[in-house]
Amino acid sequence: xxxxxxxxxxxxxxxxxxxxxxxxxxxxxxxxxxxxxxxxxxxxxxxxxxxxxxxxxxxxxxxxxxxxxxxxxxxxxxxxxxxxxxxxxxxxxxxxxxxxxxxxxxxxxxxxxxxxxxxxxxxxxxxxxxxxxxxxxxxxxxxxxxxxxxxxxxxxxxxxxxxxxxxxxxxxxxxxxxxxxxxxxxxxxxxxxxxxxxxxxxxxxxxxxxxxxxxxxxxxxxxxxxxxxxxxxxxxxxxxxxxxxxxxxxxxxxxxxxxxxxxxxxxxxxxxxxxxxxxxxxxxxxxxxxxxxxxxxxxxxxxxxxxxxxxxxxxxxxxxxxxxxxxxxxxxxxxxxxxxxxxxxxxxxxxxxxxxxxxxxxxxxxxxxxxxxxxxxxxxxxxxxxxxxxxxxxxxxxxxxxxxxxxxxxxxxxxxxxxxxxxxxxxxxxxxxxxxxxxxxxxxxxxxxxxxxxxxxxxxxxxxxxxxxxxxxxxxxxxxxxxxxxxxxxxxxxxxxxxxxxxxxxxxxxxxxxxxxxxxxxxxxxxxxxxxxxxxxxxxxxxxxxxxxxxxxxxxxxxxxxxxxxxxxxxxxxxxxxxxxxxxxxxxxxxxxxxxxxxxxxxxxxxxxxxxxxxxxxxxxxxxxxxxxxxxxxxxxxxxxxxxxxxxxxxxxxxxxxxxxxxxxxxxxxxxxxxxxxxxxxxxxxxxxxxxxxxxxxxxxxxxxxxxxxxxxxxxxxxxxxxxxxxxxxxxxxxxxxxxxxxxxxxxxxxxxxxxxxxxxxxxxxxxxxxxxxxxxxxxxxxxxxxxxxxxxxxxxxxxxxxxxx
Amino acid sequence: xxxxxxxxxxxxxxxxxxxxxxxxxxxxxxxxxxxxxxxxxxxxxxxxxxxxxxxxxxxxxxxxxxxxxxxxxxxxxxxxxxxxxxxxxxxxxxxxxxxxxxxxxxxxxxxxxxxxxxxxxxxxxxxxxxxxxxxxxxxxxxxxxxxxxxxxxxxxxxxxxxxxxxxxxxxxxxx
Lengths: 806, 175
Known about the structure:
The structure holds two protein chains of two kinds. By secondary structure, chain A is an alpha+beta fold. Chain A has 22 helices and 29 strands. Chain B folds into two domains: 11-94, Ubiquitin-like (UB roll) (Roll), CATH 3.10.20; 103-172, [2Fe-2S]-binding domain (DNA polymerase, domain 1). Chain B has five helices and five strands, in the order E-E-H-E-E-E-H-H-H-H. Chain B has a five-stranded mixed β-sheet with strand order 2-1-5-3-4, sandwiched between helices.
């Protein structure tokens, strides 16, 4: 099955999604987005659109210092400001809320940890850390009052550079640690030293990926309403409402049954809306104090405090004359900022775990250090360290090709894990399935790779800097991390009403990707009804079963999988009833097009049978559970936490992959990179809805392109973040991009019930690596490399200027 | 990310220089009294209750708050509410409704030109404005027309496919 996305392909009436609405769905059908008409007409309700009576607004005073002791906080003047309802310092908040529970506590992994309060108490560790809060009748009044809070700080020495943080005399971020290293993750196989000693060639590079995040168009926001009945209702832009509920209960010291978390419609997530932020318990405490609903909205500049991805790879590769890579050695320094309780630090682990990518390399020794500094903490960011690993892996594969004078496609083919060697073990992964050569074949064709190389020869002949980039991405997905509320399974309920309408209540949430459409398709197909009669409920902890929400491209694997199992249960009960009513063998009935049909052609409407189960005693004599409802939990089979005889585990069950080819031209005078063409082919296993999967892939690719060329969250020498608006943080815009062409290969996972591998995250890593390779290919005639991301004009020009003049 | 005040709660309004702004919104005469510093996007959302217009940056960078003011597409976070006195405004709620979508909305649904939907009002207004001026826009025209509207979800490709689809249909059925 090959799906190529181009204007011509989508013009095919057979693929026209408008034609399919309302009809039965098969896997792979282009059903259009559920609730699309509501969203298109401004009727979608996001967090800031929720109207509550007597709502008040919170604003947060943030530390202006990267490291300082708080001597005193005086709220008196702020409390006298117009409209102010209350103000709160860290000391006052202490008895009202315990530490913010970690998204995934490093202590669970046997590492150091640290506690973070909703407002800083004794010390601030980064510019932007919450220090005090004001609640007022309007947001403007709350913000105005912040200026009247007096905080006396004793400024302390700070460190924002990860190497400086490793120095023996460096300021320590956490006084009870003896250095600034949170965790040292090691991944090794084979005998790397011997492989290096015996290899024909070796080379070494230093490759840096910058601090940047995901910048969803809707920032975060929370509304806490603590009722007089003691029930806390928390509306939040959260990707994981159930774990957030559990953590709020812990932090606030109230029974979990007294908390309801409702995740509003999300304006994008990408990891930015994983929980663990100080403002989560803060709004709850404030609501309890004022006895009214309290809303806090993240400003755009607040959102740019959140870090991710900043890593340096000190990487070496050993290889033979024919391009065979025999060993990798890599020391990763990840600058994770001041840790925090969010989900960011784990990216340093995954960046190491992802080695050796899609390659059959039997010797490697990779160590990743998560280093704490006085920068703001990370949260998870789409790619979750896999983009960093792919950049380092794919840049070194290209360097190998360059050293040997081989084609980079050829070197990749030489080293791919062959498709008959799956499942394939590495130190911390068991790869489920794959056909990497097949993906590479397709992307070479789609990109017109050979023609691009010919074009390169002629353009270079004119003295211009034209580059072709190749990259291959392997994306571990669906992570399961026992010990905390980050799991690889999920739960769905399927319920059929007397009307025959179907409800799916699932623990998987949607950050705006559209997985509700895919889950509805799976259930509709199983029950043989129109997808329009299936409604998916997500995000309300009083409605859906406990689940882990949205992360790691898990939604179809486990949300779709559990919904499928529940739908099968319900179908079985309907079949029993239909069998009685139509006097036929339940196992011989066909469910299709809203009808249940017997072998001899008798049929009843699905809705008639559903109603009969509720209303006709005759319909249910053989059924011990006449309710048309089932709740099932599902997780993929390929999760292995007990080390095997080689000490190997696999916390990720599925491994989508993709091939990417781009061409660029670099302006020699300015360093500005112009992206000329982009083609990519992905394999995420079975595809439920090609339109949605394409949409995810396009979005991921462009997020990768943005990170490769423009997006950055730099700090100045005084330890302050520089970017606070989209004038500094440069997002990709339409004129920056060429037509992006994508294709698809389907290699189902043998370990998931639907054969899916997960779509959503895949594409970021390949795009980062592909652009880096294209730009460096363009710079080849100058004999220079650009290995500090992003490859913005000034940075590429810096590399150009290191060239020895001819 | 904007907000002044829930409708009906006039607390701060008495203490600040304020105006009554009268305008036509989605064919309806509307008026609201608000502080002079109120942004048009705040007036639209918080005073008029039209939450379909979104605020993504309050800085004119992202375009999510785009509306049509007297025939010109306008980032409503860059206009003070009193400056909109006497204008005629269309917000996304005025373009179409479920069951009776604007052709551009239809094209965006069919070609999946949105995911989370947050930036969508701006993309729709930019597209409609382009097609009002260009019957057969080139790819460069389309990319130029959308330059002021950031989308994080889609990577723009399906937005551009949607604009092409809308352009073809508009060309086919001139009104």
